[in-house]
Amino acid sequence: MGQNTTRRGFIKAGVAVGAGLAAGKAAAQSDPLITEVQEWNQVLGFGVDERPYGIPSPYEKAVKRRSVPWLTADPISSINFTPLHDLDGIITPNGLCFERHHGGVAEYDPAAHRLMINGLVDNELIFTMEDIMRFPRENHVYFLECAANSGMEWRGAQLNGCQFTHGMIHNVMYTGVPLRLLLEEAGVKTEGKWLLAEGADASGLTRSIPMDKALDDCLVAFKMNGEALRPEQGYPLRLVVPGWEGNMWIKWLRRLEVGDQPWHHREETSKYTDLMEDGTARRFTWVMDAKSVITNPSPQAPITHGSGPTVLTGLAWSGRGTIPRVDVTIDGGKNWHAARMSGPSLDKSMHRFYYEFDWDGSDLLLQSRAHDSTGYVQPTKDALREIRGTNSIYHNNAIQTWYVNKEGVAENVEIS
Amino acid sequence: MGQNTTRRGFIKAGVAVGAGLAAGKAAAQSDPLITEVQEWNQVLGFGVDERPYGIPSPYEKAVKRRSVPWLTADPISSINFTPLHDLDGIITPNGLCFERHHGGVAEYDPAAHRLMINGLVDNELIFTMEDIMRFPRENHVYFLECAANSGMEWRGAQLNGCQFTHGMIHNVMYTGVPLRLLLEEAGVKTEGKWLLAEGADASGLTRSIPMDKALDDCLVAFKMNGEALRPEQGYPLRLVVPGWEGNMWIKWLRRLEVGDQPWHHREETSKYTDLMEDGTARRFTWVMDAKSVITNPSPQAPITHGSGPTVLTGLAWSGRGTIPRVDVTIDGGKNWHAARMSGPSLDKSMHRFYYEFDWDGSDLLLQSRAHDSTGYVQPTKDALREIRGTNSIYHNNAIQTWYVNKEGVAENVEIS
To answer: B16 in contact with A at a CB cutoff of 8 Å?
Structure first.
């Protein structure tokens, strides 16, 4: 079964030729991996005491978070990216969730961690981790996307890899206490309309959050994918702000101040606002709109098997709900096809889509287009630029294009 | 906020006393963790280039798989257990999924791995990993439970820890190709009613699987929780047999033989059959019936906060569908309460339940009872023994009891 044997090939052999001449049979008679006993059939492997906490196979060592050194001045206040092109399904394993820090990763002792609620409340309160664990918990799968994800693409196709263009996103199951319950405990005063969330790390990152959102679906989370938060994701406590930009999901959460107006701190004025063509800036653009991206084939994941049956796959998400539909084109938009969705469809969570096609070996222009449960349709780059210009860094949810050449090599391109 | 300050305490303070005298405020004025700037607010953490593949916090080092040395002759053909008492939600992180091996863990090169389909088929076929990746894939969250899980409990309360009594289970999202598609490719002959699945490890483990199940919902999986299977879970390829005992989920899957009758190999005759009181053995008891267990409080996770608001939580699952309902008792069955379910309810997946109560500090007898979507109710140990006696090792899905004393210390006990 060589490089050029396709799935269609299998089917033809099965139907038309019969068992004796099938591709598989021929391979069986000549492939030493089948005909000869291999070393691994004769040697015992390692035991159950070897790895109390398991790690990936050594053959998977290329599957890792990657940073782009020139993007930031140093690796402390910096970014790395989730290897989306290596993953499938909708769960991001904890070890591969992208990182964005403003003062590096601290490893805090949970016994010494406190969460304070102060400001316009009836009772200023301080919680230990044990106090928080005594409140009712909920479990939800949510995507977390950095507002700057795909930000380099505003000015054209720039980074050659799905990991780099779109990898500031991950999707895990959180366990946490509804923020509402902690605020009810403190008793928010009538004039308390805003919340300042503050992190305990060296950057002391702060964001203003409207009280409506705080009381709606925010969580004070302590677990991700079943186990404790990872240090780089804010261990032992992080704010979860479903569907909203990642910068608001304060890590190492230590304080929640209730106020009557937003604070206009650094991360909601000079950063994380949308600079328009006329020089004004849109602020408070928190929701991450519907978006999709093809993860395979992509620049880091070329087609290596030649023409014939080919699996295209990708991810779609919306900060406003679910994704009932994704369209895919392989000819730059001449023809659109409904993708096949597979896996749970959960509110404000990643969705996985597939499109299987029989590649004829010609050039491809791949695009995907998400529709969310509100009816919103993912826009083109041109449509976004018409409204917002090209000064922006944040909130680029435009349709992305991969060009695939006859050899299966993929490249980040832009078409109008 | 000392050990005895309860959530109810917070509420009372907030409502009746006012901000000035609230427990939280008093703590704020005296707790150096709040009043003094801490080291971690002044020192930069590590950067994004430090851990391309992340690991848990050093403060979480007690969260690990554990084995029981006396259970098996050596650690190669042995078992370790998922730390259920340390987890929450429904996803088991890959590094903490229990292991059961018959020849140890081998680390295979996926480029040298082959899957063969032979026997009563029109075309005997051999697939490379790349061949398999060209078929349509699906994503499903399924529990995998060893048939021997809770097996020590047939003869009474024996192992003092939820991890040891019930930890031969995990729950992850699989990505794989429906087995049906590979069998269709080979063309199963009319008389092909059984399938022998065989692993590539030194034990060459085999199991007979009826064709109806193979064509229904089985997957040939290559990813778990988004990334490649872990070596100890059969990397690069494992058979997923939803809802059925874990031993059938052949790891390092290398061969599928189609036959007209079961093979009666070791793992389906002398092992993984149910020895009855009269000395006969039930065979082919593949489905894992509905079961639940309280993970907290439990012997490894005592109540440490004293009386007052207490969170009880646990897991429930069924090999026949979903879990619409779990009942909980804290007084050994005198009163039963409907537990609160939280998280996705998925077919043949773990479900998470909670029961919050105000502990009065007296002795507790904790039990949970699962109902599945077929109407089946988890039985008592006595009810199971009445039918099956006590010779069994496998398929114990009985209600489990934890005794909690006035100090919050929990113990595995049995009550009638």
So the answer is: no
Instruction: Give the integer Cα–Cα distance in Å for B413 and B416.
Output: 10
A contact residues 111-170, partner B, Cβ 8 Å cutoff: 112-114, 116-118, 121-128, 130-131, 133-141
3-state secondary structure chain B: CCCCCCHHHHHHHHHHHCHHHCHHHHHHHHCHHHHCCCHHHCCCCECCCCCCCCCCCHHHCCCCCECCHHHCCCCCCCECECCHHHCCCCCCCHHHCCCECCCCECCCCHHHCEEEEEECECCCEEEEHHHHCCCCCEEEEEEEECCCCCHHHHHCCCCCCHHHHHCCEEEEEEEEEEHHHHHHHHCECCCCCEEEEEECCCCCCEEEEEHHHHHHCCEEEEEECCEECCHHHCCCCEEECCCECHHHCCCCEEEEEEECCCCCCHHHCCCCCEECCCCCEECCCCECCCEEEEEECECCECCCCCCEEEEEEEEEECCCCCCCEEEEECECCCCCEECEECCCCCCCCCEEEEEEEEECCCCEEEEEEEECCCCCECCCHHHHHHHHCCCCCCCCCCCCEEEECCCCCEEEECCC
pLDDT value, residue A12: 32
At residue A142, does pLDDT exceed 50?
Answer: yes
ipTM: 0.93
pLDDT tens for A44-84 read: 999 999 999 999 999 999 999 999 989 898 999 999 999 99
Our CA angle for A258, A259, A265, nearest 5°, is: 100
Of A10, A13, A78, Cβ closest to residue B48: A78
For A14, other C-beta atoms within 10 Å of its C-beta total 21
B302, B359 contact by CB (below 8 A)? no
pLDDT band, residue A37 (cuts 50/70/90): confident
pLDDT, tens digit, 9 for 90 and up, residues B110-124: 999 999 999 999 999
Taking the complete model, does pTM exceed 0.90, yes or no?
Answer: yes
A210 touches chain B (CB under 8 A): no
Q: Which residue ranges form the domains of chain A, and what is each CATH number?
A: 69-282 (3.90.420.10), 291-413 (2.60.40.650)
